Amino acid sequence: MARSTVLPGFPLSLGLSLAFLALVVLLPLAGLFLHAAGLGWAGFFRVAFAPRALAAYGLSFGGALLAALLNAGAGLLVAWVLVRTSFPGRRLLDALVDLPFALPTAVAGIALATLYGPHGLLGAPLLRLGLAVAYTRLGVVAAMTFIGLPFVVRTVQPVLQDLGSEPEEAAASLGAGRLQVAVRVVLPLILPALFTGATLAFARALGEYGAVVFIAGNVPGVSEIAPLLIATRVEQFDIAGATAIATVMLTGAFLLLLAVNMAQLWQRRRREGV
Amino acid sequence: MTPARPSPWPRRLLILLAVVLLILFLLLPLLTVFASAFAHGVAAYGAALADPDALSAIGLTLTVAALVLPFNLLFGLAAAWAVAKFDFPGKSLVITLIDLPFSVSPVISGLIFLLLFGLQGWLGPWLAARDLRVMFALPGMVLVTLFVTLPFVARELIPLMEEQGTEEEEAALMLGASGWRIFWRITLPNVRWGLLAGVLLSNARAMGEFGAVSMVSGHILGLTMTLPQQVERFYNDYNTVGAFSLASLLALLGLLTLVAKSLLEKRTPTSGA
Amino acid sequence: MTPPRLIAALGGLLLLSVPAWAGATLLNASYDPTSELYRDYNAAFIRHWRAETGQSVRILQSHGGSGRQALAVMEGLPADVVTLAEPRDIDAVAARTGLIAADWRRRFPDGAAPYSSTVVFLVRRGNPRHIRDWSDLARPGVVVMSASPKTSGGARWAYLAAWGYALRRSGGDDGRAQGFMRAWLSHVPVWESGARGATAAFLRRGVGDVLLTWENEAMLARREAGGVAVEIIYPSCSILAEPPVAVVDGLAARHGTSALAEAYLRHLYSPEGQEIVARNHYRPRDAAALRAHAADFPAVDLFTVASLGGWAALWRRHFAEGGLFDRLTAAER
What we know:
The structure holds 3 protein chains of 3 kinds.
Chain A (H helix, E strand, L loop, with lengths): L9 H28 L2 H9 L2 H34 L5 H7 L2 H4 L2 H12 L6 H6 L8 H27 L2 H8 L4 H30 L2 H4 L12 H10 L3 H35 L1
Helix pairs in contact in A: 1-13, 3-8, 3-10, 8-10, 9-10, 10-13, 12-13
Chain B lengths: L8 H29 L3 H10 L1 H34 L5 H13 L2 H12 L6 H6 L8 H12 L1 H14 L2 H8 L4 H12 L1 H17 L2 H6 L10 H10 L3 H28 L6
Helix pairs in contact in B: 1-14, 2-14, 3-7, 3-8, 3-11, 3-13, 5-7, 7-11, 8-11, 9-10, 11-14, 13-14
Chain C lengths: L2 H13 L9 E7 L3 H19 L4 E7 L1 H9 L6 E3 L3 H11 L11 H4 L2 E2 L2 E6 L9 H4 L6 E4 L5 H17 L4 H12 L5 E2 L2 H9 L6 E5 H10 L5 E4 L3 E3 L5 E3 L1 H7 L2 H9 L4 H9 L3 E2 L2 H6 L8 E3 L7 H9 L4 H8 L2
Parallel strand pairs in C: 1-2, 1-3, 6-7, 6-8, 10-13
Antiparallel strand pairs in C: 3-11, 4-12, 5-8, 5-9
Helix pairs in contact in C: 2-13, 3-4, 7-8
């Protein structure tokens, strides 16, 4: 069954984890499904797969995916710079990385909408270049990228730190080029962490509400995210409808995350098996 | 640093790129917040923070974060140990379940607990009959925050523990060390930076969470208002300075934990070296 | 501390859910823009109650979106009184939980609405686009800001105000009224989720030529903008918005605060209560208070929700999923 069963603590740690998951995650989510089931199949499909809802899922999943990809690139760069280089102000930048978590999401949304708005510090010059950010789908992606950035940086950073610079230096001393070192030596070692970070950034962007609604136009079918549809239903005491849309989001997210995690595990096993 | 390195320019270019990125994307929003907070001067900023409702919100936010933290630590360590050190069927399922709370929209995260513990919910009537208040009180806020921040520590530790493998622990086991001893003496020191990063992240998120907590807090002024909710309250009351002062405080609390991390890092030599 | 003992200690701490209040305490669950009104009023009522009965009383306020607040009361928020934005929200609590008597409208004067407000226009200084009435919203090129009626109670009133005007202008012709609605709704570039978000977009981000908002919100926004950057425009007619109040009978009885709760809401109608209402930019019911603040509240031709068919019918037709609002805004995209 287990690879390294010689280590103790497997039943205790797994048991504890599963008990936690069952109580804090599974039980409440079961309630969610049950409420959605109250609609019956026909009702569920009518609510959850209406054209407007489908458009919203498309924007939420598509935007989150794009944001995760952007974050994978930007986050890797930032993590590498923070760990491997030293320059004045590095610590300050390191501290800044967590900002998207510490700021209440609505504040982040308001700040972003102010900056990227038609008269904002960044929005005005961008608009002159023909790029409208606020109240468009681009704004949605920008907000989603903002809230997801810490995930990639903070998962890659410890692994990079732990690796030390020995592998890079060893490879370099053997005559390998800089790019070659980065791609052949470092990247495979941090890939799992990078993947994890991007996956989490995706998940987080998918559910985000506060940071996004202030900068998205919330125009039905165009710039309306799925969590907004959920909030709208709750506002109207339509709990069953809200849970139906949430069920679709959750199932989609679950399947995507599961696929990513399985692929990662499979890849890891294959690498170690060789 | 090392003489073997050729031209420093690519490295400098990458640094520049990262710095510009962080300034545009993170520093500017932060400055926007501070600019709004100090729009009417330092005195107004101080007055906004000294507001009794603001003080109560600060206290409640710190309380919730402090109550959530040990649970996150415990769960994170247990889950990471099980997932990273052992191989078992259904492992990707467990990891996915850990990730899942991130993807749940905050309104829903709050709503599911309301549906469970609310008066119309499964457990609500039972609790009400015993005069136990979970929703619209501290326990509900702690539970919801726990749900929202659950993945952080575990997800931070898993890649790190996987990367480190199990050799050190197995060697210690062969030398006759007990399980707890191995954990305290080998595993924990090895992952301490990852653990710290996870704790800082979950802490920042616990203090900053708005949507989910707002569903279960009841918004009672001076009693069940956390900092992010008080920010919204001030904002809706056209008290912009108050709103952004508190928001800047949240950002500062985040920075403060980072400073603590830097100090810790300085005192102990880096683990990777 | 060993882990098991740590768990036990923490578990105990979590279960320690002491009901946070005791004694003569009253909780008022209200909606978003009333927090300053009730802060003033609570201080006055505490003095009044002490003078009247010699008892000290503590009043807690809770503010949030009107619908969310109603949901919270249904799910166990221990509110003794509710002071919400729409009758529908109080009806929902009454119908689903029975905590509020179904005849709550008859328990206090004026349909249990101690103050009223209306929907006005906020335009930029000098009114450069010459926006004087509802018909100007449909003029080509005018950019209108409003929160989404789907998520904001204030925006629902604004929408209904426009609808009432449209019906009047078309002489009751539903099709033509819909045409007018479609025209101005297509001029809204962004549907902000809350009234305050729409105001911020209008004031700070410079979006739009005109903002549709509550009269009291418009006055606060004008003050925030320094009193010169924007102007309030009163259209030819608008809606009479009547935010209702009710005692949560079931909970007040359990808390032993029924008499207190009743007196708390009753005092809103007193000269002192009405004066506080007017000072906080809500239109008082009391004729004397209204005269005293006549400069703040110009006379407007106001129509009621009842004249449009009543809340329940309006809700079903306009705001429910797939309703008229959804269709009018979807058709043109």
